[in-house]
Design goal:
Number of helices of chain A: 4
Helix content of chain B: 25-40%
Largest sheet of chain B: 11 strands, mixed
Number of helices of chain B: 14
Mean pLDDT of chain A: 92
Low-confidence stretches of chain A: none
Oligomer: heterodimer
Structural class of chain A: mainly alpha
Number of strands of chain A: 0
Distance between the termini of chain A: 11 Å
Number of strands of chain B: 16
Largest sheet of chain A: none
Shape of chain A: globular
Chain lengths: ~80, ~400
């Protein structure tokens, strides 16, 4: 799965948690908090993406990601690590 | 309890209901009048295809409530989504949308404990093979009090709020607590919710195995299975449902220009000192007598009893003995559970609503499948509704654990 596909996955789950957002306007550089997603919503999105990618990344590493792009980086790195 | 307010000050200014026969008070009124039922085999995931008889809600659209109050119900349990719909109706009925009340003067009591078993069962089933991906929101939704949080956010309620548990008497106990909040002058308005008891196959099977839930006799005829006080009764039949009542201080309601549906005039709440499911004539009698004493009403003044009447052979006979010993043999009697099914945690509120509607529209609804009463000497409203003016009514809720609750509702 490439970076763009991972981004789309995050975007879909973000929209699922926050259906009031315009899905297409969610950008790589967006921060979930600024989009109005609370910490519970963020945890939900991250968990759903990890479930689909069969990844289990530590909460400490996940907390370091400051925006969607950094989440994509983190997921991408871990997938490649498995491969 | 020391209080500056007496019971005549407790008015019921809002009602909301979601039941297996109708959504909303106007439709529920029609359903009561016509004696409508919706029994069948349980089909919801987590209790489906096992032959359990009961009454489930027809399809319901909850999106309008979610949009109106701008809150996502995505991770809310079935019980909690339905409660939000029922509160929304009661909220509008009490004109809390249009004639605002300070949020810190509004209280909230959720009646029911362990009422989201099917939600929990479904969640565990889904993540059984991969628990590391368990949805974080389960850490919130597993608690009954998630409903307290959801409703307080949705409707901006900032006064006292909590949940109370009393098994099948939970709804009634919630109503009593809401009245206490007002009598102690902690709030001016309090919302009592009888939460939908969302049983999974596990609870159904246990209740059947203990002999409480029917029906073996009518396994092939679900519509005939629920028959409180009939000679062929063989246990209670489950029903999905959620009811909401809004209580308000009389003076406060008057200032807001809100008309009351009725009055909560008294209650009795007693324990048998018995952990088992079997009921007690003495305990039930004490609950009704305490309610009469609190309301300063004589038994002869009661016109109608909304019985606990589940269809459990021992429960039905015990209630009849208790009613007779209190001096209520002259009253018209029916059983709302014969129409809605036994809504367990919600039943007390669902039946208080049914009582208020019957008082308002001068009738007693039919008791479905009551053909040969176990005691023919009493004033049963059998399969046909009757016209009657009701001034004071008793509504009973008796629960496992020897918990007995009786309330008096007056015109």
């Amino acid at each position: 799965m490439n970076r763009n596909e991972i981004f789309k996955l995050i975007r879909n789950h973000t929209y699922e948690v926050a259906p009031y957002l315009n899905k297409e306007s969610i950008k790589l550089t967006d921060n979930l908090k600024d989009l109005g997603v609370d910490s519970m919503g963020r945890a939900e999105i991250v968990m759903m993406v990890m479930e689909e990618l069969t990844l289990n990344i530590s909460k400490i590493d996940l907390a370091k990601a400051n925006n969607i792009e950094e989440l994509v980086d983190l997921f991408s790195k871990n997938i490649n690590h498995i491969l | 309890m020391r209080s500056n307010l007496d019971l005549s000050q407790i008015k019921i200014t809002g009602m909301g209901i979601v039941s297996s026969t109708a959504f909303g008070i106007p439709a529920f009124t029609k359903a009561l009048l016509s004696g409508q039922t919706n029994f069948g085999y349980l089909k919801r995931t987590g209790r489906e295809n096992l032959g359990f008889i009961g009454a489930e809600l027809p399809n319901i659209n909850i999106d309008s409530v979610s949009l109106k109050y701008n809150i996502s119900f995505r991770n809310a349990s079935w019980s909690n989504k339905i409660a939000a719909v029922a509160v929304s109706e009661a909220w509008q009925d009490a004109k809390l949308d249009s004639i605002k009340v300070d949020p810190i003067r509004i209280g909230l009591v959720v009646g029911g404990s362990n009422f989201q078993q099917r939600h929990q069962q479904k969640t565990r089933q889904r993540y059984r093979s991969r628990p590391e991906f368990l949805t974080p929101s389960y850490g919130l939704s597993v608690w009954d009090t998630d409903l307290v949080g959801l409703l307080s956010q949705c409707f901006q309620i900032n006064g006292e709020g909590y949940s109370v548990g009393a098994a099948s008497a939970s709804g009634t106990v919630a109503l009593i607590h809401a009245a206490r909040q007002i009598m102690m002058e902690q709030v001016d308005v309090s919302i009592a919710i009888g939460a939908l008891c969302d049983v999974s196959a596990w609870e159904c099977q246990a209740l059947i195995n203990m002999g409480a839930m029917g029906s073996e006799r009518f396994a092939d005829a679900p519509d005939l299975a629920c028959r409180p006080f009939d000679r062929n009764h063989d246990g209670f039949i489950y029903g999905e449902g959620c009811g909401v009542l809004i209580l308000e201080k009389a003076e406060h309601a008057q200032k807001r220009g809100v008309t009351a549906h009725g009055n909560l005039s008294g209650w009795g709440l007693t324990l048998d000192g018995n952990r088992n499911p079997n009921p007690s004539i003495i305990g039930e009698k004490r609950a009704m007598n305490n309610a009469l004493q609190m309301a300063k009403i004589e038994p002869e003044q009661i016109n109608y009893v909304n019985t606990h009447g589940t269809g459990s052979p021992l429960g039905d006979t015990t209630e009849i003995s208790a009613l007779k010993s209190v001096g209520l043999s002259h009253c018209f009697l029916n059983a709302t559970k014969s129409l809605t099914g036994h809504c367990l945690t919600a039943s007390g509120i669902v039946e208080a609503i049914a009582t208020l509607i019957q008082i308002e529209f001068n009738f007693c609804h039919a008791t479905r499948n009551l053909i040969n009463p176990i005691d023919p000497s009493l004033q049963w409203v059998k399969e046909t509704s009757i016209s009657v003016e009701i001034r004071h009514a008793i509504s009973n809720s008796f629960a496992f654990g020897g918990i007995n609750a009786a309330i008096i509702i007056s015109k």
